[in-house]
Automatic annotation (TrEMBL):
CDD domains in the cross-refs: Peptidase_M90_mtfA
Protein name in the entry: M90 family metallopeptidase
Lineage: Bacteria, Pseudomonadati, Myxococcota, Myxococcia, Myxococcales
Pfam family, any one: Peptidase_M90
SUPFAM superfamilies referenced in this protein's UniProt entry, alphabetically: Metalloproteases ('zincins'), catalytic domain (SSF55486)
């Protein structure tokens, strides 16, 4: 439940006017923003303000956090919770942004993004922009890492976020398990929709499925309709209407 101090702080942030230049950043960098209806655009901007001003943004590797960076990264996070509550991000405290691929002490090789257990998301600015420039290729590092945050909101990286109703868990487990194992087995339907990285474990499967849900919704709806329906029920909207 939202604590009284956080609730008050968010009310204050919502009352602050949106800086006019933020709309320019969104129009320039965030294609899905231009497609929102006026009603959804206002909902999006309200959540964007809270996320952008509430979370701490930290530049790393010589990178400087500007308002444009803050707004664009926040937009990638808010897309996932447009029909969910911002409380899914309550455990997230800070977003660290590098200019490009980076190295971490506990990882071999360079990485483009990482969601840490203690409330930190680390992103490459280059990868954030690449995900937005190619909105239908199924690859979006920022969406992937913020999906991990949603997953972690109930206490564990296990591929099952806090669902809308208790009655949804049984069907979620059945459908996600079926398609996770389908991807592990190299089944054509899953491989046509999702990256093989999703076969690593259940948490990565949910994050990869999230990327595909937002970037390849029509393919997911056609090739793996049961998976699409579960993702739609959780996220609360249909990115592929009419198909």
């Amino acid at each position: 439940m939202l604590g009284p101090f956080r609730w008050l702080r968010r009310r204050q942030l919502l009352r602050r006017p949106l800086p006019p230049e933020w709309l320019g950043y969104l129009d320039k960098r965030v294609p899905f923003f231009r497609e929102l209806s006026p009603e959804l655009r206002q909902r999006f901007l309200d959540k964007l303000k809270v996320f952008a001003w509430e979370k701490e943004f930290i530049g790393a590797g010589g990178f400087t956090i500007t308002d444009e960076v803050r707004v664009v990264v926040a937009a990638t996070a808010v897309q996932l919770v447009l029909f969910l509550d911002l409380s899914y991000y309550d455990r997230l405290r800070e977003v660290i942004v590098y200019p490009g691929a980076f190295k971490l002490p506990d990882r071999t090789g360079a990485v483009l993004g990482e969601a840490k257990n203690w409330g930190t998301v680390i992103l490459s600015w280059d990868s954030v922009l690449a995900g937005l420039r190619n909105p239908d290729d199924g690859h979006d590092t920022a969406a992937h890492e913020f999906a991990h945050v949603l997953d972690r909101a109930d206490g564990a990286f296990d591929g099952t976020p806090k669902l809308r109703q208790y009655s949804h868990y049984r069907e979620w487990a059945s459908v996600m398990s079926e398609h996770f194992h389908g991807l592990q087995q190299g089944r054509r339907a899953e491989r046509n929709v999702m990256d093989d990285y999703g076969s690593l474990n259940e948490a990565e499967f949910f994050a990869v499925a999230t990327e595909s849900f937002f970037e390849k919704p029509r393919q997911m709806k056609q090739k793996t309709p049961e998976l699409y329906e579960e993702m739609k029920r959780f996220y609360g909207w249909d990115p592929a209407p009419g198909d």
